[in-house]
């Protein structure tokens, strides 16, 4: 699967940034585009140098291949010859060389865990790493073995590195689950052992009588994954008892028979690992509608399968996957609401079964033209939520400032809705929205109506290429613009700031905010 990062992805504040300065792109030579890489991988050329064979690679052998023209990298136990990919890598050759002749799993997870490297580099696969079995030391070596198991304090000494990295951190108890039944239903209960679990922390997919239920607990993921022993109806309910951290998933039996067991355990069942170490899971969603918002931006509405429970948390994103020229392309997008003024009209669609996206169409792009060609009724794959924004950051905030450029406006939609409907401490929320022209402003009319209706909300538009008739602010993000905009409601009010847009905009904005004495704890950078 080929994955195309958006222009501002990963963004400052994202866990996928390597450093505070971010991961910048480098100019690629002509003929080294993504499409060129696709063509090369389909050309039949031997990209490994092994003439189609696969080998078992020892650590000693891996270390030998550490030069640009002979560069092997291990990712999650698989070794790839990335030399042919060097000139096609958007992050540059130096980024790949950081893991030359070594295990690059940690670096890969930090920068772009979302990339499906197995398909991206499948023609570069050299083979598997030769794994040395971890043998517990017996009592003669000073370690006591009880029933074939080491004492808990010694487990990390014998487990492979990639296993110990995924063990829950100290202080975070592993969840558990149980189930019970009535004549007509089966209820799976997950005990998270954490308070304040919400419905958007739970993702449930019921497909072909297999149940996949994931609970996101802080930065970890707990999974219940079973092939059910009997058939159930596609509709189910999910309930969360927040104060005790209990999740209940109620399935409806197709036949009133007594189940002797819940079902067969499937991949990663009853696992509790760091969220960054989990793979993305997709479900097929149907395109219900699309409408023009500006001359180049559309509002897409996708319907979740009836057997899926998925609510994207405020400020988080998902990945959309499409097949383009025979390859799967993945792009991150932040869901929005169907409108900023939804209470002005009767809701047409149930909010928990539909996901909306504001997406700019790039005519010369690879992904968005294909997306725009979808017909009503067509399907597209949607992942579960990703991102590190938490609404807890907004607790007791009195002044909320939002800086957005172009489609960087999308994460601000749910943040703005949440702030005006759930933040009792809020005195003021202000949006400064940067665009090239008036025609580029997304939902301008709605924003202006919201500002008239809601006294706590103000919006300012800034254009970099305005018409002569424009009477508003002009230019690019600057200290002068921000100094005037970032006026608190009172001298010592608690403030928080969100920023999103193309990488240069976000990086410059964060630098200016630091100059204006905003701390890292008061700033969150979103992916665009």
From TrEMBL:
Annotated spans, Disordered: 1-29
Required co-factors: FAD
Cross-referenced InterPro entries: Cbr1-like_FAD-bd_dom, CS_dom, Cyt_B5-like_heme/steroid-bd, Cyt_B5-like_heme/steroid_sf, Cyt_B5_heme-BS, Cytochrome_b5/Flavoprotein_Rdt, FAD-bd_FR_type, FNR_nucleotide-bd
Predominant subcellular localization, coarse grouping: endoplasmic reticulum
Places the protein is found: Endoplasmic reticulum
Biased composition (Low complexity): 13-24
Domain CS residues, every copy: 172-263
This enzyme's EC code(s): 1.6.2.2
UniProt cross-references to SUPFAM superfamilies, sorted A to Z: Cytochrome b5-like heme/steroid binding domain, Ferredoxin reductase-like, C-terminal NADP-linked domain, HSP20-like chaperones, Riboflavin synthase domain-like
GO BP: any one term: superoxide metabolic process
Catalytic activity field: 2 Fe(III)-[cytochrome b5] + NADH = 2 Fe(II)-[cytochrome b5] + NAD(+) + H(+)
A GO cellular component annotation in the UniProt record: endoplasmic reticulum
UniProt signal peptide: none
Location of the Cytochrome b5 heme-binding domain: 54-130
UniProt-listed SMART domains: Cyt-b5
Family according to the record: Belongs to the flavoprotein pyridine nucleotide cytochrome reductase family.
Physiological role: NADH-cytochrome b5 reductase involved in endoplasmic reticulum stress response pathway. Plays a critical role in protecting pancreatic beta-cells against oxidant stress, possibly by protecting the cell from excess buildup of reactive oxygen species (ROS).
Protein name: Cytochrome b5 reductase 4
